[in-house]
Amino acid sequence: MRKYSVFALAREALRAHKGWEQQWASPEPKSEYDVIIVGAGGHGLATAYYLAKEHGITNVAVLEKGWLGGGNTGRNTTIIRSNYLYDESAGIYEHAVKLWEGLSQDLNYNVMYSARGVMMLAHNIHDVQVFKRHIHANRLNGIDNEWLTPEQVKEFCPPINLSADARYPIIGAALQRRGGTARHDAVAWGYARAAADRGVHIIQNCEVTGIRRAANGAVIGVDTNRGPINAKKVGVVAAGHTSVIMNMAGVRMPLESYPLQALVSEPVKPLIPCVIMSNTVHAYISQSDKGEMVIGAGTDQYTSYSQTGGLHIINHTLDAICEMFPVLTRLKMLRSWGGIVDVTPDRSPILAKTPVPGLYVNCGWGTGGFKATPGSGNVFAHTIARDEPHRINAPFTIERFTTGRLIDEAAAAAVAH
Ligand SMILES: Cc1cc2nc3c(=O)[nH]c(=O)nc-3n(C[C@H](O)[C@H](O)[C@H](O)COP(=O)(O)OP(=O)(O)OC[C@H]3O[C@@H](n4cnc5c(N)ncnc54)[C@H](O)[C@@H]3O)c2cc1C
Q1: Which residues line ligand 1 (CB under 6 A)?
Q2: Which fold, 27-82+84-109+184-254+346-401?
Q3: How is the chain split into domains, by residue range?
């Protein structure tokens, strides 16, 4: 595949951009692969890429029921950070941030990773205590996170409202400067192009409808709406639909699927220089390179597979945004949408082998898995290739929900984006 470079851009500019090659092929499915990945979101595509790049396993198919990146990967608000409380979480999210830092070069694709800083606002004494605890824990793990006074908050993000009359006044913040955003579509496209370049088959409009098992229980392949496909290893990376697919193999997952919404405004000139999150008022916001305000809400309170959510949820979020940024009060909103997020009881992911030989699962990222995409794909590829977890994902088993060795980020943070 031709490399993207400044010279390629100049050459194509001179010939009316007629020479660009298709970014990835659309092959017909073969009857057999070494590994099948179910789900062409960022995590599935990254898994396929690292299987090929780091483990030399290129006879891989990524099966996607819709279009590539059409799940949560293409619907999220792209916040990236690694300032999680527990050592296990810090390990996996920081592994991802380190990969984000070199990802555009690695993939030869501009994923627009922008380390503009993620600021998490404190509105009450409880917030202050929780964030300071995070800061200390993060620093012990070598992860940057610092405390800001209200004056420093204003300096870092001038349009923010520090008025003491606010319903939830801002009394400080935790700032991770290496946190930020990336372009979600580019992440899916970049991994797809780089994986396909190494021989991986990406097959869209191919829904997995069954998991086939031998008499000894081991996986032998999948059924799809385009016929059966054989493989001795199958990795399920299907976010909100994970329970449905794992059920096909008789594995009951500790997951609930909820709608989660986001929305964007009309584009305006650069105004908000960083990512702002507020757990207490439950809203978060950043500004895209196009100028749109990208705003995220909370999950609906009921489980559902519908990719829409309750209007009152986004109304509440916009009330909170207007309180934090009165300057945005007259901004028009352009679009809102929803995704289906798969939530575990401890709000930490599962990246693991399963009780079924040859079946692996990567799920439970809930409202906050985009940031983990490179790290998750990297260690999940290791788990599939070697049939044993990488030391980073070893704690993220299914069995922790029976042994009680939880990684309880639910207690550690109200919002997990
Ligand atoms: C509104 C919203 C905002 C969010 N904001 C953030 C954020 O700011 N930061 C952050 O870190 N995370 C965020 N997230 C979470 C993040 O988007 C997800 O954790 C992450 O994108 C999951 O990636 P994935 O590749 O596992 O799943 P997906 O991208 O959902 O990919 C799974 C794929 O599996 C496919 N699939 C399902 N069933 C089948 C089947 N039977 N056969 C074949 N294919 C199938 C689906 O079509 C889908 O394409 C947000 C999510 C939402 C919805």
Answers
A1: 38-44, 63-66, 70-73, 75-79, 207-208, 237-239, 241, 245, 260-262, 296, 339, 341, 365, 367-371, 417
A2: FAD/NAD(P)-binding domain (3.50.50)
A3: 27-82+84-109+184-254+346-401, 115-178+257-343
- List the one residue out of 51, 169, 189 whose CA is nearest residue 107: 189
pTM for the whole thing? 0.97
Q: Do domains 27-82+84-109+184-254+346-401 and 115-178+257-343 have the same CATH topology?
A: no
Quick: pLDDT tens for 264-296. Answer: 999 999 999 999 999 888 889 999 999 999 999
Which residue, judged by its Cα, is nearest atom 41 of ligand 1?
208
CA of 91 to the centre of ligand 1 (A): 21
CATH number of 115-178+257-343: 3.30.9.10
Which pLDDT does position 164 carry in this prediction? 81
Q: How far is the CA of 167 from the centre of ligand 1 (A)?
A: 34
What is the helix, strand, coil percentage profile of the chain, to 5?
A: 35, 25, 45
CA of 37 from ligand 1 middle (Å) equals 14
Query: Which residues, other chains included, contact 402 with Cβ-Cβ below 8 Å and sequence gap of 6+?
Result: none
